[in-house]
Write a structure and sequence with these properties.
The protein is of the alpha/beta class and about 475 residues long. It has helices spanning about 5, 20-35, 40-45, 50-65, 70-85, 135-145, 150-160, 185-190, 205-215, 240-250, 265-285, 305-315, 320-330, 360-380, 395-400, 400-410, 420-435, 445-450, 465-480; strands at about 10, 90, 110-115, 125, 130, 170-175, 195-200, 220-225, 255-260, 290-295, 300-305, 350-355, 385-390. The strands form four sheets. Strands 3-8-7-6-9-10-13 form a seven-stranded mixed beta sheet, with helices on both faces. Strands 1-2 form a two-stranded antiparallel sheet. Helix 8 (about 185-190) links the parallel strand 6 and strand 7. The two termini are about 40 Å apart.
Length: about 475
C-alpha cells in the first residue's frame, strides 16, 4: 500500500488515547438516527454499555419509531447518513473528505469481451436443474404459497421471463462494487450479454475468476486497474474513492451503481462508508445513475398484514409434535424459545426482527446504511433497486459454524435456505426488472423495501427467528459439519 493510500484511508475516529472503537461509533450513529424521531430511544442508545450485544433492541427501535410517518422514517435515514459522514475520518483528517485530485493517479480500464452468445431466455437453476418457463412458473407459485417470498417478487420474475429482451439491459453499464461477491449479479449479467464495470480488491485469484467468467459468457467486462493490466486489476475502496469516482464518471451508458461489498468485522463498516461516499460523488456527476443493493434478510423490517396473518396461521396449525414440544420449551425458557412471531389478533403491518447476534453490530450498521441511502434516493425520484435477498449458503455464512448449523436446520422451522447459484440469478432478475418497471407509488418507504422481498420464509414463519435460531443450529449441527 502506498503512502497516499495509507494517509487517505477511511476509518472511525480515534479517541483521546488513539483508540478507534467501532462500538462507540455505532452507538453514536444510531443515537443520532433516533434523535429526530425518538429522543428517549436516542438517549437509551447513547447509554448502552455493551453495544456488541445490546445493539439489537436499538436497531429495532429505529424501525418501530419510523413506522408511524414516512417523513419520520426519512428524517431518521437522513440523520443517520449525516452522522456517518460527519464522524468518519480520512487518514489523519477530521472529516470524511478525500483530496480533490487523487495523488495516486488515475485508474485505467482493461476490457474482457465474452465469446458466447447472449442467453435468449431467462433460466433459473435449482439443485443443478434448469427451470424452463413452465417449471419456473410452478416454482414461483410454490414459493409464494409456502411464504418463501412476497407475491410481488414472483410477479416481477415472471415479467422478466416474459421479456427476455430486458436481460441485456442495453444502454446500461452495471458498476459492480465487490464484483467477486457470491451474491452479486456479475455472472448472470454477463451471461445475458450486459456490460459490467467490475470493481474489487487487487487479488489475483478474484480477477482470474472474473476474467474467466467474462470470457466464457456473452457480455463485456471493464475492469478498473491502477497498473493498466488485468494482472494488476483492483482497487481498495477505503482509500481510492476519488480515482474510482473519476473512472465511473467516464463510463458509457446509464450507470447502475451496485453495492455488493463485504468484509469481516470493522472493515465492513469502513468499506460501506467508503461506498456511500463514492455514491454521493457518482450521483453528483451522473444525474441519471441508478442504485442497486441487496438487503440482508437478517435485519428488522416492517412486513405486510398478509405476512403477519400467514405467520399466525402457521403457528396455530403447526404439527401436534411441535405443539407438545413447544409448550414446555417456552415455559422453561421464559418465553424465549419457539415464541410466535407476531401477537395474536394483530392487524396492519407487523415488525419482523431477524437480527442475528453472531453477525455483530458492524454488519448490522453497514446494512442499515444501505437502507438509509436507498430511502433518501427514492425520495429524490431516483431509480433504486434494493431487494431483500434470501438466506443463502455463501462462504461468508458457512465459515461461521453457528450460522452454518442454523442454516442447516432452518427448514424445520419453515425457512428455505438458497444455494448461491439460485440466489444470485433470482436477485439479478429483480435488478433487471427494477430498471424496466418503475416502483409502484407507496405511502410509506417500508413498502418499497417489502415489495419484492425474497426472505426465504423468515417473514411468514410461525416462530420469531431468534427464538428458533438456537434450536435450528442444534438440529442442523450434524448436517453443517457434514
Amino acid at each position: 500500500m502506498s503512502e497516499h493510500e495509507e494517509s487517505a484511508s477511511i476509518d472511525v475516529p480515534a479517541d483521546a488515547r488513539g483508540k478507534r472503537s467501532t462500538s462507540a461509533f455505532g452507538r453514536a450513529v444510531i443515537a443520532d438516527a433516533l434523535s429526530p424521531i425518538d429522543p428517549t430511544g436516542a438517549a437509551a442508545a447513547g447509554r448502552e454499555a455493551n453495544w456488541r450485544s445490546g445493539y439489537l433492541s436499538h436497531l429495532r427501535r429505529l424501525v418501530e419509531a419510523g413506522l408511524a410517518d414516512p417523513q419520520v422514517w426519512q428524517a431518521s435515514a437522513r440523520s443517520g447518513l449525516d452522522s456517518i459522514h460527519q464522524r468518519m475520518v480520512v487518514g489523519d483528517g477530521t472529516t470524511a473528505a478525500w483530496p480533490s485530485d487523487p495523488s495516486a493517479g488515475s485508474l485505467h480500464t482493461v476490457t474482457v469481451r465474452g465469446t458466447a452468445e447472449p442467453a435468449s431466455d431467462f433460466v433459473l437453476t435449482m439443485g443443478g436443474q434448469r427451470l424452463g418457463q413452465e417449471d419456473l412458473d410452478r416454482q414461483l407459485s410454490t414459493w409464494t404459497e409456502r411464504g418463501v417470498l412476497e407475491p410481488g417478487a414472483a410477479d416481477a420474475v415472471r415479467r422478466v421471463a416474459e421479456h427476455p429482451e430486458w436481460l441485456r439491459a442495453d444502454g446500461h453499464t452495471f458498476v459492480a462494487l465487490g464484483a467477486g461477491s457470491e451474491m452479486g449479479p456479475v455472472k448472470a449479467l454477463l451471461r445475458w450479454g450486459a456490460t459490467v464495470a467490475a470493481v474489487d480488491l487487487p487479488r489475483k485469484q478474484v480477477w482470474k475468476r472474473l476474467s474467466e467468467a467474462a470470457t466464457a459468457r456473452a457480455g463485456v467486462m471493464h475492469a478498473a486497474t491502477m497498473s493498466g493490466e488485468l494482472d494488476g486489476a483492483g482497487v481498495d475502496l477505503t482509500s481510492d474513492v476519488p480515482a474510482l469516482a473519476d473512472w465511473i464518471a467516464g463510463l458509457e451508458g446509464r450507470v447502475v451503481l451496485g453495492n455488493y461489498v463485504y468484509a469481516d468485522g470493522a472493515a465492513n463498516l469502513r468499506v460501506s462508508a467508503a461506498v456511500d461516499a463514492l455514491t454521493q460523488r457518482v450521483l453528483a456527476d451522473r444525474a441519471d445513475a441508478a442504485l442497486a443493493f441487496l438487503a440482508t434478510p437478517t435485519d428488522v423490517f416492517v412486513v405486510p398484514e398478509e405476512a403477519v396473518a400467514h405467520s399466525l396461521d402457521a403457528f396455530e396449525h403447526r404439527r401436534s409434535a411441535a405443539k407438545i414440544i413447544g409448550r414446555p420449551l417456552r415455559a422453561l425458557s421464559g418465553g424465549r424459545l419457539l415464541a410466535r412471531q407476531y401477537r395474536p389478533g394483530s392487524t396492519g403491518p407487523g415488525i419482523h426482527d431477524a437480527l442475528v447476534p453472531q453477525q455483530g453490530p458492524n454488519y448490522a450498521l453497514a446494512k442499515r446504511l444501505q437502507r438509509w441511502r436507498a430511502t433518501m434516493e427514492r425520495e429524490e425520484g431516483r431509480t433504486v433497486s434494493m431487494n431483500i435477498a434470501p438466506p443463502t449458503r455463501t462462504q461468508s455464512v458457512v465459515k461461521n459454524r453457528a450460522l452454518a448449523a442454523a442454516y442447516a436446520g432452518a427448514h424445520r422451522f419453515g425457512v428455505e435456505v438458497f444455494e448461491p447459484a439460485t440466489s444470485n440469478v433470482l436477485m439479478a432478475a429483480l435488478l433487471v426488472h427494477d430498471l424496466h418497471v418503475p416502483m409502484p407509488t407507496h405511502e410509506h418507504p417500508w413498502q418499497d423495501e417489502a415489495a419484492y422481498a425474497v426472505h426465504g420464509g423468515l417473514w411468514r414463519s410461525a416462530y420469531a427467528p431468534r427464538s428458533a435460531l438456537g434450536l435450528a443450529a442444534l438440529l442442523g449441527l450434524g448436517s453443517a459439519q457434514g
